[in-house]
Amino acid sequence: MIWLVTFLSCIGLLCAEEPFDHNVHNERVIGGHDAKPNTWKWQVSLQHGSSDEESFYHICGGSVIDSLYIMTAAHCILSMDAKQYRVVVGEYNLFEYDGSEQFIRVEKIVVHPGWNGDLANGNDIALLKLANPIYDNGYVAIAELPYREQMLPHGFNCTITGWGLMDYEGSIPTILQEAPLDVVEHSVCSQYDWWGSVALKTMVCAGGDGIISGCQGDSGGPLSCYTDRAWRVHGVVSYGPAGMCNQYKKPTVFTRVSSFLDWMYSVMDGPEEDDSGK
């Protein structure tokens, strides 16, 4: 569920499974390909439904950042009722049981207190506390994170992963997709013919070549970059352009993880808060 914006106006789609009309030049995560099994072990499928175990469906991605916590986008939270969500870790084929999955219910939702529903305002990040801890079955790993306020240089190559839409017909992939995206530094991404004032320093822009991009269903998922001798999650998929997902000079925009580490650690290590995180 990637929310789509045209400059300062949000034209978000509320349901990840609802297709929308856009044209693309390549397929999968728009321009991506099947990921190798057991590669992106911190990737999560966030699913929405009810108490009926059979009715859950994928709405967003996420990243494992602790045995009890998942990081995702705030705009992925359709309801503050934690009972309506579960996460699937160790997932690969979204529509088949691979034997590697762990299905875990969500106990608590903590949305960043600065999130007000306006993507241009940033703070599009949320943490989900799980009802039961994730265990190491060989198919799951806790994501490495960047250091505080780390910013990647222009052109730095990263990878987006997810089960987002692949084409203009709204096709959903069965296999986890991956695609390379180059970072677009803030001084470029904030230019008027790119994202302008919508691009904040607390965001990471990546892509914008008109070929490869994230798309609806990828929201909340990771932008993984190899820095400091490890793959680290530097971004959380936040938004992209209205219409075509892969527009020239309209890169996929991510919440910059390095800008929110203090808040994340305060949630995970601090005293219990109410579900709003405020």
TrEMBL record:
The keyword Protein biosynthesis does not apply. One of its GO terms (molecular function) is serine-type endopeptidase activity. One of its GO terms (biological process) is proteolysis. It comes from the Eukaryota. Residues 29-269 form the Peptidase S1 domain. Keywords: Disulfide bond, Hydrolase, Protease, Serine protease, Signal. Pfam families: Trypsin. InterPro entries: Peptidase_S1_Elastase_sf, Peptidase_S1_PA, Peptidase_S1_PA_chymotrypsin, Peptidase_S1A, Trypsin_dom, TRYPSIN_HIS, TRYPSIN_SER. Residues 1-16 form the signal peptide. GO terms for cellular component: extracellular space. The keyword Protease applies. PANTHER family: CHYMOTRYPSIN-LIKE ELASTASE FAMILY MEMBER, CHYMOTRYPSIN-LIKE ELASTASE FAMILY MEMBER 3B. This is Peptidase S1 domain-containing protein. It comes from Amphiprion ocellaris (Clown anemonefish).
